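Input sequence (125 aa), recorded before submission:
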Amino acid sequence: MPDVNPEYGIGMLAFRLPSYVPIQESICLKIYHEAMKYQQSGEWRKAKELYCEILESAVMEEACQSSDDSVRVSTSTIGRLKFLIFKNIASISREQGDLSAAVDAYIEVGMKYLHYTFTSFIREG
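Predicted structure, C-alpha cell format:
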C-alpha cells in the first residue's frame, strides 16, 4: 500500500467511481490509523474529526448500497472499518464524559454488527 498523507488523501474520498474504490479504501485505512494515533495520545478532537471524514466519504456510502461487484468486494472491509470507527467514537465520547454520544455510537456499533451478520448469513444461504 503506498504511503498516503491523510491531509492529501481526504480529497480522493469524494469520488464516486467504482474504479476508485481500492484507492479510497486504502486512503480510509491510512486515515483510520492516523486517527487511532491521535486517539491513543489523547487528542480526541482530532481523532474524531478524522473518523468523521472517513464516515462521510463516498466509499463508505457507496460500498453497502452498490450492486457493482467491484464496489461490493470492498464492502466487508469498509463494513468492519465503519464498525471500528463507531466503536472508537463511542470510546472517545465515554472518556470525555459525553455518555449520550457514547450510547448513540454504541447503538450504531450494534446496528452495524447486526447488519453485517444478517447480510453475511443471506449471502451464504
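Checked by second reader. The chain has one domain: 6-124.
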